[in-house]
């Protein structure tokens, strides 16, 4: 998971500079202001853990991984009066199915591999030219069984005991009219090499299955990075990693807690009195059954303190500081028509910066309605510029209090913010010397400009850099607020 869903409240697009992370271990240098260990949490109910098998199998298929491959070195020797040589090759069984069952607080994993036939060229000597024939290797179906349990003191699953490979011996044959006689020595060498190679392949396959199952469950959904802001002198860093003791596997299912947060440095464009939001973390839920009893494969819970911290630290880092050199463009010809008697360009630019408090609130979801957030800005400064005779001129200066409503769209693979509504609770006009509009007309047109600006800022955001773990890729099923936390429920993908 590369960035976290709390980035959804950043109202102006930023450049993301991802930093490396170790998905298997917690961050030993987590800043003191981190919200944790329940900034976010994942939960897969016991009945849905079986969906991890198909989910992991899809990931393996996408990556062309998952086969059980025994690697044999070059083989050479003599059989009868001829020498033989076979180049190194891999004897691979494709993955047929992957099943996961919860048993005794462990994930019992069974991988079934298909039977397959392999032919390799045998070079025979002496001979001029070199004579060849084919070695046919028939590998029967195989089964690999392993158990995964939470590691002690680390948020990951590890093998509990040895992986067990069940497979009967292969069948060997030579192509018709192969001149190799007394080929028992060749067959003995192939079988002697194949046994240890299959055992080594089983251990490698077990490690691959363990890693892929954890990715399918979201256990490796850790991310760190830095956001740069339009002001240029402020930076916003974030970190979200599985909590050290945050992985629990019991009869209820798989539960994973995340710790982390957003940490910014104040930009010079932000008032000094605009202090960071102190995080007031809420407790994890642990109980995730939807109120309406809707079945689900994955539940995600987010602490609203994380969202408030994300926005607060981003504003302090200069996210809303848009100097004229980095301003947003919007059409003005229909809202300020007096400009166009002065030969102004139809598109104007807007600079804005915060001068007051910002409050974030989660609106209680209604049935069959999208999740909505309200973001209230007080004393937001807005300057509107137009190009007059080739020069940029400030034509309108505003000071406003606004309440912005945002909807969170989860219908696609990654969440996206959409504009829902805007209310202007206070609007003061600080500058309008070049405009002929005045009084109530100008206030009405200024309100339209503020609304367009909000729509433009939200639409400039693309899909948020967070992806639902593979086990929940079937799409959202429900959303609600419980004990102050935002909850999302996702279904399993079924082709």
Set down the secondary structure blueprint.
Blueprint: E1 15-19, E2 35-45, H1 52-62, E3 68-72, E4 75-79, E5 82-86, E6 89-93, E7 95-103, E8 106-113, E9 116-125, E10 131-139, E11 142-150, E12 157-159, E13 164-167, E14 171-174, H2 184-217, E15 223-228, E16 235-250, E17 253-264, E18 298-302, H3 304-316, E19 328-331, E20 347-354, E21 358-363, E22 371-388, E23 391-409, E24 416-431, H4 439-459, E25 475-482, E26 485-491
Antiparallel strand pairs: 1-15, 2-17, 2-18, 3-6, 4-5, 5-9, 7-8, 8-11, 9-10, 10-14, 11-12, 11-13, 15-16, 16-17, 18-26, 19-20, 20-22, 21-22, 22-23, 23-24, 25-26
Helix pairs in contact: 1-2
Structure write-up:
Among the domains are: 49-211, Bactericidal permeability-increasing protein, domain 1, CATH 3.15.10; 322-464. It has 4 helices and 26 strands. The chain has helices at 52-62, 184-217, 304-316, 439-459, and strands at residues 15-19, 35-45, 68-72, 75-79, 82-86, 89-93, 95-103, 106-113, 116-125, 131-139, 142-150, 157-159, 164-167, 171-174, 223-228, 235-250, 253-264, 298-302, 328-331, 347-354, 358-363, 371-388, 391-409, 416-431, 475-482, 485-491. The strands form 5 sheets. It has an 8-stranded antiparallel sheet with strand order 1-15-16-17-2-18-26-25. A hairpin with a 2-residue loop joins strand 22 (371-388) and strand 23. Helix 1 crosses helix 2 (184-217). It is elongated and about 105 Å long.
């Amino acid at each position: 998971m590369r960035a976290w869903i709390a980035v959804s409240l950043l109202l102006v697009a930023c450049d993301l500079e991802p930093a490396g992370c170790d998905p298997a271990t917690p961050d030993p240098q987590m800043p003191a202001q981190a919200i944790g260990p329940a900034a976010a949490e994942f939960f897969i109910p016991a009945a849905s853990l079986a969906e991890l098998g198909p989910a992991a199998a899809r990931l393996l298929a996408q990556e062309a991984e998952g086969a059980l491959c025994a690697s044999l070195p070059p083989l050479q020797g003599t059989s009868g009066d001829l020498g033989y040589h076979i180049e190194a090759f891999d004897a691979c069984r494709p993955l047929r199915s992957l099943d996961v069952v919860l048993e005794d607080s462990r994930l019992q994993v069974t991988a079934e591999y298909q039977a397959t036939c392999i032919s390799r060229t045998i070079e025979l000597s002496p001979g001029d030219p070199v004579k060849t024939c084919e070695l046919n290797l028939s590998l029967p179906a195989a089964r690999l069984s392993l158990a995964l349990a939470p590691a002690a003191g680390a948020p990951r699953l590890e093998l509990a005991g040895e992986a067990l490979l069940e497979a009967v011996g292969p069948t060997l044959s030579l192509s018709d009219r192969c001149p190799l006689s007394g080929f028992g020595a060749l067959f003995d060498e192939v079988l002697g090499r194949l046994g240890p190679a299959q055992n080594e392949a089983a251990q490698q396959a077990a490690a691959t299955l363990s890693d892929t199952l954890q990715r399918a469950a979201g256990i490796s959904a850790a991310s760190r990075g830095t956001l740069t802001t339009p002001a240029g002198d402020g930076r916003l860093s974030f970190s979200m990693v599985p909590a050290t003791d945050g992985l629990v596997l019991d009869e209820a299912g798989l539960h994973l807690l995340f710790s982390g947060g957003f940490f910014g440095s104040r930009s010079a464009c932000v008032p000094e009195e605009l202090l960071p939001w102190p995080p007031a973390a809420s407790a994890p839920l642990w109980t995730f059954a939807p109120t309406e009893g809707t079945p689900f494969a994955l539940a995600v819970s987010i602490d609203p303190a994380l969202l408030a911290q994300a926005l607060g630290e981003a504003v302090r880092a200069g996210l809303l500081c848009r100097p004229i050199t980095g301003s947003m463009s919007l059409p003005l010809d229909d809202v300020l028509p007096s400009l166009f008697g002065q030969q102004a360009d139809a598109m104007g630019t807007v600079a804005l910066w915060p001068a007051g408090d910002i409050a974030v609130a989660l609106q209680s979801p209604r049935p069959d309605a999208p999740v909505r957030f309200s973001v209230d800005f007080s004393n937001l400064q807005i300057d509107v510029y137009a190009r007059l005779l080739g020069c940029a001129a400030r034509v309108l200066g505003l000071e406003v209090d606004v309440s912005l409503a945002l909807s969170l769209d989860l219908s696609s693979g990654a969440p996206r913010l959409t504009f829902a509504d805007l209310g202007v609770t206070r609007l003061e006009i600080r500058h309008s010397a070049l405009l002929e509009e005045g009084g109530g007309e100008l206030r009405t047109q200024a309100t339209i400009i503020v609304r367009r600006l909000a729509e433009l800022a939200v639409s400039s955001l693309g899909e948020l850099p967070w992806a639902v773990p593979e086990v929940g890729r079937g799409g959202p099923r429900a959303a609600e607020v419980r004990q102050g936390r935002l909850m999302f429920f996702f279904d399993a993908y079924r082709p």
